[in-house]
Design goal:
By secondary structure, this protein is an alpha/beta fold. The chain is built from 13 helices and 7 strands. It has 2 domains: 202 residues, P-loop containing nucleotide triphosphate hydrolases (Rossmann fold, 3-Layer(aba) Sandwich); 101 residues, no CATH class. The strands form 2 sheets. It has a 5-stranded parallel sheet, with helices on both faces. It has a two-stranded antiparallel sheet with strand order 6-7. The chain is globular.
C-alpha cells in the first residue's frame, strides 16, 4: 500500500526568501527537496488572481476529460524542464543533474494509473516521479516529506491543504524594503505599486489561511531564518514530527554546500547584515512609499520600527 503523501509547500512573495529557505531545508535527511522551483501550475488556472500572479506558480487545474500523460505535460514546471531538456540555456547548467523529463513522465503515468486521476493524486505522482527519475539525487533513506517551493502559492493554500490531508504550507515573509530592493535587480522589475500589491496580497492570504488551518499553515520571517535557521526552521520541522537537523544551519543543493544562494534566487548571502544593507539601497521616496503601501502588515510582522533608509 502506498504511504500517505506528505508535502511541505513553501511560499513567499518574490525576493522574500522562499528559494533561500528551500536551500536551508535541502540537506535535511528526512526531506525530499525539489531541485528548483516546483512550478506546478497549468494554463487552465483562470480566476481573479490570474492577472496578478503567473499561472505557473499556482496550484494546478486539470481537464476532466484528459489523460494522465496529458496532465503531466500540462504542468508547466519551467525551471526543471529547461534544465533537463535544454541545459545549455538553463541558469542551473553549472550543477550536475542526471534527470530525464521523459522518464519522469513514464513514471508519473504509471503512478497515476495505480491511484487514478485527481488533483491530489496528480500532484503526489509528480513529486514522487521526480525523485524516482532523478538519478544522482543524494538520499539518506530516511525521507518522509516532499518539499517544494512555488512563489506566491500561499494564495492557493486552502486548495493545497484541502486536497492533501497530510500537507503543510510554510509561508516566508521578508521586510518589503529589502524585498523590493532585490526585485529591482531583475532585468524587467515590477513597479513599486505592483510589487507591493503582490506583497500585501501574500500576507493577507497567509494570515487568513493560518487562522482557517491552524497547525498546518506556518508563517516565518526571512529575517529570523537568516538570523538562526536551525532554530527557526527547526521549530517548523518539529511541528511536522521531523528532527531539527544540523543541516538546517547551511544552504545547499542536493546536499552540497553553496557559497551563495544565487542563482536559485536574487538573495546571494542569507545573513542579517546583507539583508539590512539591501534595504538601504532604496531612495527616501521609495522607502516612504513602501511604508505607506505595506500598511498595517508592518506592525503585524514587527517591521514597523524599521527606519526607511536615508
Amino acid at each position: 500500500m502506498t504511504e500517505p503523501f506528505r508535502l511541505l509547500k513553501l511560499s513567499a512573495m518574490y525576493e522574500n526568501g522562499g528559494n533561500t529557505t528551500q536551500r536551508f531545508l535541502d540537506g535535511h535527511p528526512q526531506m525530499l527537496v525539489y531541485p528548483f522551483e516546483s512550478q506546478l501550475g497549468t494554463r487552465l488556472v483562470n480566476d481573479a488572481l490570474a492577472s496578478t500572479f503567473p499561472v505557473k506558480y499556482r496550484w494546478p487545474e486539470f481537464r476532466l476529460d484528459a489523460s494522465a500523460s496529458a496532465d503531466y505535460l500540462s504542468i508547466i514546471d519551467e525551471e526543471t524542464r529547461v534544465r533537463a531538456r535544454t541545459p545549455q540555456v538553463s541558469k542551473f547548467r553549472h550543477v550536475p543533474f542526471d534527470f530525464s523529463d521523459e522518464e519522469r513522465g513514464v513514471i508519473y503515468t504509471r503512478l497515476v494509473g495505480a491511484t487514478g486521476r485527481s488533483r491530489a493524486h496528480n500532484v503526489a505522482a509528480f513529486f514522487r516521479a521526480t525523485f524516482e527519475a532523478w538519478k544522482d539525487h543524494k538520499k539518506s533513506g530516511r525521507e518522509t516529506v516532499c518539499v517544494g517551493y512555488s512563489p506566491i502559492i500561499v494564495v492557493d493554500a486552502a486548495k493545497i491543504l484541502g486536497d492533501l490531508p497530510e500537507a503543510h504550507v510554510l509561508h516566508v515573509v521578508r521586510n518589503p524594503w529589502s524585498a523590493y530592493a532585490d526585485t529591482k535587480k531583475r532585468p524587467v522589475p515590477q513597479s513599486l505599486s505592483d510589487y507591493l500589491l503582490g506583497w500585501t496580497l501574500n500576507q493577507y492570504y497567509a494570515l487568513l489561511f493560518r487562522d482557517q488551518f491552524p497547525g498546518r499553515l506556518h508563517v516565518v520571517r526571512a529575517e529570523d531564518v537568516f538570523e538562526n535557521p536551525l532554530r527557526t526552521l527547526g521549530s517548523v520541522c518539529g511541528k511536522l514530527g521531523l528532527d531539527a537537523a544540523d543541516s538546517l544551519r547551511r544552504v545547499s543543493w542536493n546536499a552540497g554546500a553553496l557559497e551563495e544562494v544565487y542563482p536559485w534566487g536574487t538573495i546571494r548571502k542569507a545573513t542579517p547584515e546583507a539583508n539590512r544593507a539591501t534595504s538601504r539601497e532604496l531612495s527616501d521616496a521609495e522607502a516612504s512609499e513602501i511604508r505607506a503601501r505595506a500598511g498595517h502588515y508592518l506592525e503585524t510582522f514587527d517591521y514597523k520600527s524599521l527606519v526607511p533608509p536615508k
